[in-house]
Amino acid sequence: MGITDHLSAADVILDLEAANKGAVLQHLAAEAAGRLGRPQAEILDALQARERLGSTALGRGVALPHARLEGDPRPIALFTRLRRPVDFEARDEEPVDLVILVLWPEASPEGFLPALAETCRSLREPQVLRRLRSAQAPEDIVALLGGAADRRSPGSDEVTPQGAGKAPATRAGS
C-alpha cells in the first residue's frame, strides 16, 4: 500500500498562500488534525520534531514532511502546491512549491518506509513534476501521482528520504 492509496482529490490543496516553511507546516497540521480528529498542536509538534532532525525537502522544489503519530490513527497523505515557493532548507537550495505530507500510525509501522520510498520515486520524474506544477484540478494531481507510482518498478531507483522513520512518536496532549 502506497501514498496514493491514502490520497484522494479531497486531500489536494492547490495554490496555498504561505509565507514560509512554518506556515506551510502549520496549515498542513490544521488540515490533518481535522481529518484525524486529533489536536493540531500534536501534529505540528511531530512535524517540527522531524524537521529538527533535518529538512524533509527532497530537492527540485519538493518536500515530503512526515511523522509517525502515537496510537493507531489511519495513515494520511495531503498534497499541497504552493502559490509561491518557500525556503524549506533544501540541500539543493531550491525553494519548495510541491509538498506531500505523510502521517502514519506508530502502532502500525509496516508500510511507512515503502510508502515514502514510492512517493520519492514518483517525484524524481521531471515530467511528473512539471505536470504537478501545471495541473488544474485535484483529480489531475491524484492521477499523476498514481500513474507515476504504477509506472515505476518496486525496486528500481529506490530512494528513502534522509532520516525517514526516525521521527519520535508524539504523546497525546503534548
What does it look like?
- The protein has one domain (3-151): Mannitol-specific EII, Chain A (3-Layer(aba) Sandwich).
- 37% of the residues lie in helices and 20% in strands.
- The protein contains 5 helices and 6 strands.
- The protein has helices at 21-36, 40-53, 112-123, 126-134, 138-151, and strands at 12-16, 57-59, 62-63, 66-69, 76-86, 96-105.
- Strands 1, 2, 3, 4, 5 and 6 form a 6-stranded mixed β-sheet that branches.
- A hairpin with a 2-residue loop joins strand 2 and strand 3.
- The chain starts with 11 loop residues before the first strand and ends in a 23-residue tail after the last helix.
Topology at a glance:
Elements: E1 12-16, H1 21-36, H2 40-53, E2 57-59, E3 62-63, E4 66-69, E5 76-86, E6 96-105, H3 112-123, H4 126-134, H5 138-151
Parallel strand pairs: 1-5, 3-6, 4-6
Antiparallel strand pairs: 2-3, 5-6
Helix pairs in contact: 1-2, 3-5
Observed structural traits:
single chain; 174 residues; alpha/beta; Mannitol-specific EII, Chain A; six-stranded mixed beta sheet; 5 helices; 37% helix; disordered C terminus
Taken as a percent bin, the fraction of beta residues is 15-25%
CATH superfamily caption: Mannitol-specific EII, Chain A
Report the average pLDDT across residues: 85
Q: Topology as H/E string?
A: EHHEEEEEHHH
Which overall shape is indicated by the principal axes computed on the Cα atoms? Answer: globular
Taking pLDDT < 50 over at least 5 consecutive residues as the criterion, the unreliable ranges are 152-174
CATH domain fold name: Mannitol-specific EII, Chain A
Q: Helix count, per DSSP?
A: 5
Integer count of domains:
1
How would a crystallographer describe the biggest sheet? 6 strands, mixed
CATH class equals Alpha Beta
Q: State the helicity in percent bands.
A: 25-40%
Structural class based on helices, strands and sheet pairing: alpha/beta
Radius of gyration: 15 Å
